[in-house]
Amino acid sequence: MHATFTIWSKHMAKFVRNGEESVGLALQSVLWVVLFGVGMRGMVGEINGSDYMSYVLPGIIALSALGGAAGGGIILLDERLRGIMKEYLVAPIPRLSILLGNAASTATKSLLQALVMLIAGLLMGAQLSFNPLGWLGAIVLLIIFAIGFAGLALAVASVSRTIMGYHGMIFLFNIPLLFASNALYPIDVLPSWMRWIVLVNPTTYLIDAIRTLAFGSPASLSLWLSFSVISIFTVISMWLALIAFKRSVRM
Amino acid sequence: MAETAIVAQGLRKHYGDTIAVDGIDLEVAAHSIYALLGPNGAGKTTTINMLTTLVPPSAGSAQVAGFDIVKAADRVRERIGVTFQDIVLDRDLTGRQLLDIHGRLYRQSAAERRKRMADLVDLVQLNDVIDRRVNTYSGGMKRRLELARGLMTDPEVLFLDEPTQGLDPQNRVGIWEYVRRLNKERGLTVLLTTHYMDEAEEVAHQVGIIDHGKLIVSGTPASLVSNEGGDLLRITASGDLEAAAACFRQLPVVQSAEVSPSNKQIEVLLEHANKHLAALLAASAQIDFQIEEILLSRPTLADVFLRYTGRALRD
Ligand SMILES: Nc1ncnc2c1ncn2[C@@H]1O[C@H](COP(=O)(O)OP(=O)(O)OP(=O)(O)O)[C@@H](O)[C@H]1O
Ligand SMILES: [Mg+2]
After folding, report:
1. Which residue in A57, A70, A102 sits closest to A84, CA to CA?
2. Of A53, A186, A226, A242, which has the fewest CB atoms closer than 10 Å, so is most exposed?
3. B222 touching A (Cβ < 8 Å)
4. How deeply is A130 buried, as exposed, middle or buried, from its count of CB atoms within 10 A (0-12, 13-18, 19+)?
5. Which ligand is closest in space to the CA of residue B54?
6. pLDDT > 60? residue B1
7. Which residues constitute the domain of residue A113?
């Protein structure tokens, strides 16, 4: 645990120090909300009784968590390719703690990013429901989700040989996760074959749960189902990451 | 700690068809400095990687600081310090952050870390730059910082893979001085590799030469060098050189004495040339020849190295 915390704090120290990364991430979040949200709102108006900004904000937050996970993978890959990883590997710490440290810093950044987006979204007219317990639940779910996708990214980062190769693989994941979800449009407008794809995408469950918990829209999937799907997904992806990582460092 | 800090039995590592290390038996006494020498690609780094638990051996076994490198990898990791062949420092951190994080990975308390950092930064003379980012360091500073990091957790055994590679003479001398001091004052065991034979000869108590993944010969630098045969005296002179050479050959200490084809030099092979030089000159006092210059050359570890590993280039 202490190693996870040490690696987390190292990544956070670098993040805070590296103005480009932190400011860039914050601006990116604001741009997403303002440009995308406003543009789409003009066209769509309302969905399921809530205004489009409230509808799309959870989607944008989830998608930026995906981007954040990809960034976490880059950090691992960079440490691996540059040999910095060796310092961890000869230290008396579990291999898993290296991955968890990385996933934890990724989740923290996603959370900060979500906060910036939320503020921007509220300023742009999104309506938060007053439900502190729901907010807490949404935050917990977002953290689990971010760790889960960080796990997938770490698995890919463990097997990639170059940064370019990694990007190629991650892109392959990101496109379907973005469009085959309920992030931008409700599930019922989709043809049924695509609905099935959307329903195996964990992102869908996160977004639906956040909408329910924080923005008061009626749940189209049960909260317990969402919670279970996201948790199981996260356990599986971290497990995959650990297998891939152990294989890659046993060289 | 046991009397032997590192023991390896039949240590082997192959990557596909490439055999990087081909059954190495190694014994490094506690509190000693052992230099592993060998041409490029001989298997030095791979050996160190196995001993430091970075890669598992394909066959064979080894104990470091009394613990098995596979079955008790974490016990080994707690007791060793390592610097790698390539510089592996996170360039976006300051030297101090880097050392601090390292100490935290090993569960050192804040007070312990502060104290170790103060001592080590003094030792490797990085006081002026320790709060600067590592990407502003020179190569020498980076190496010294890596050494400090390897020592941060007060290891029993220190592994140094080419610690002086690419450094200027000042930094080289500095690094070896720290190593020797730590060995003497704290009884630190050191296993190192280097391509600088003169440095190995000077700093190491024991050296081992490996080639093609095998340990070919090991011993103290002095014993290896003395096996190389005696010293060579090159006497440049004029006069009756043949008579002088014949006279030298009479002496029991002289192994051989030949006049060079140019007829200007006598080459005398003998042991401990500096001790017997006076006797040599006295013996030839009656002969009509005038010495202009005497050059003494003795075999070095580099000669030993070349004899065992040949002169062919490696990749
Ligand atoms: N990960 C690897 N995959 C494949 N081959 C490897 C790997 N690591 C080392 N080798 C091979 O094993 C052999 C020994 O390499 P090693 O790095 O141990 O040599 P070395 O003695 O440290 O050389 P140098 O003095 O150049 O550092 C070489 O032929 C090298 O190509
Ligand atoms: Mg090497």
Report:
1. A102
2. A186
3. no
4. exposed
5. 1
6. no
7. 2-249
Separation CA A61–CA B159 (nearest Å): 47
Q: How far is Cα A10 from Cα A17, in angstroms, rounded to an integer?
A: 11
pLDDT, tens digit, 9 for 90 and up, residues B152-196: 999 999 999 999 988 899 889 989 999 999 999 999 999 999 999
B73 Cα: distance to centroid of ligand 2 (angstroms): 22
Alpha carbon nearest to ligand 1 atom 17, residue: B45
Binary contact (A10, B93; C-beta < 8 A) = yes
> Taking CB atoms and an 8 Å cutoff, what residues of chain A touch B92?
14, 17-18
Shared domain check, B241 and B133: no
- Each residue of B286-299: pLDDT tens digit? 888 888 899 988 88
Query: Is residue B313 included in any domain, yes or no?
Result: no
Residue B41 sits in a domain whose CATH number is: 3.40.50.300
Cα distance from A108 to chain B (closest Cα, Å)? 19
Order of strands across the sheet that contains B254-259: B254-259, B265-270, B231-239, B289-297
Tell whether ipTM is more than 0.95.
no
Task: Enter the pTM of the model.
Answer: 0.87
The CB density around residue A228, as the number of other CB atoms within 10 Å, is 12
Task: Assess whether the C-beta atom of B40 lies below 6 angstroms from ligand 1.
Answer: yes
Q: Do B55 and A250 touch (CB under 8 A)?
A: yes
Whether B158 is in a domain gets the answer yes
Domain that holds residue B239: 230-298
The nearest CA of chain A is from the CA of B90 a distance in Å of 7
Question: Which residue, B200, B225, B250, sits at the end of a domain?
Answer: B225
Mind listing the pLDDT tens digit for each residue in A64-99?
Answer: 888 888 889 999 999 999 999 999 999 999 999 999
